[in-house]
Write a structure and sequence with these properties.
Blueprint lengths: L19 H6 L6 H14 L1 H13 L3 H12 L4 H6 L9 H13 L6 H10 L2 H14 L5 H9 L15 H17 L2 H7 L3
Helix pairs in contact: 2-4, 3-4, 4-6, 6-8, 7-8, 8-10, 9-10
Length: about 200
C-alpha cells in the first residue's frame, strides 16, 4: 500500500513566522500541499522572496525543485523576479528551460530575445516551441530571419498526405515557428523568406 505521509498539510510548520529563506527551502518539501502553500506565501512576500527563490532556481540539485522555483518567481509581480527567471534559460534540464522560456514569454521580456533565438534554433522540442511562442509575443520584426532559418533547419522525417511534417513533435514545432511570424506581422520579411 501507499506510505502514510506525516503532517501532509504542513500544519506543524510555523507559516505565519516563516521568513523567505525558510519558505524557499519548503519548495523542495515532498508534500504537495506544503510546496503549494510555500509558493503562495513567497509570492505574497513579493520582492523579499526573490533572492532566496532565485538561489533555489539556480542551485538546487533537483530539476523538479528548480522548475518549481522558476514558476514561483514567475508569479511574483516585481521586475527583479522577472529578471531572475532568466537563470532558468540556461538550466541543464529541458523542463526547467521550458518553464523559464514560458515565463519570459508571458511577461514579454524583450531583454531575453537573444537567448530565445538560440533556444528556438538548437534546443529540444519543448523549450524550442515555447521559445517560438515567446518570440511571437514580443512582436520584434528583427526575429523573423532567424525564425525562417529555424523553419528551414527543422529535421523533418517526411511529410503526411497533407504536406505537413509526419511526426507530431515536428508539426507542433513548425506550427509554433510559423505562428510566431504571424504574431510578429511583418509580411514583407516573411514573404521574402518563403520558397514556393
Amino acid at each position: 500500500g501507499a506510505k502514510t505521509v506525516r503532517d501532509p498539510l504542513g500544519t506543524s510548520i510555523a507559516w505565519d513566522s516563516a521568513d523567505a529563506n525558510t519558505l524557499a527551502t519548503l519548495l523542495s518539501d515532498p508534500r504537495l500541499f506544503v510546496q503549494r502553500r510555500a509558493t503562495a506565501a513567497l509570492r505574497r512576500m513579493n520582492t523579499a522572496a526573490v533572492a532566496p527563490v532565485q538561489r533555489v532556481a539556480s542551485e538546487h540539485a533537483s530539476p523538479d525543485v528548480r522548475r518549481r522555483a522558476i514558476w514561483t518567481l514567475a508569479g511574483i509581480e516585481d521586475l527583479s523576479a522577472r529578471k531572475s527567471v532568466i537563470v532558468g534559460l540556461s538550466d541543464t534540464d529541458a523542463s526547467v528551460r521550458q518553464a523559464a522560456v514560458h515565463a519570459a514569454g508571458l511577461h514579454r521580456d524583450a531583454s531575453v530575445l537573444p537567448q530565445l533565438l538560440t533556444i528556438v534554433q538548437s534546443d529540444e522540442p519543448g523549450p524550442a516551441r515555447a521559445a517560438a511562442e515567446a518570440i511571437g509575443r514580443l512582436h520584434n520584426a528583427s526575429a523573423v530571419p532567424e525564425l525562417l532559418e529555424a523553419v528551414s533547419n527543422l529535421k523533418l522525417s517526411g511529410s503526411d498526405p497533407s504536406g505537413a511534417p509526419a511526426m507530431a513533435s515536428e508539426r507542433i514545432r513548425e506550427h509554433a515557428l510559423i505562428y510566431a511570424m504571424v504574431e510578429i506581422d511583418d509580411a514583407e520579411q516573411t514573404r521574402g523568406g518563403l520558397v514556393l
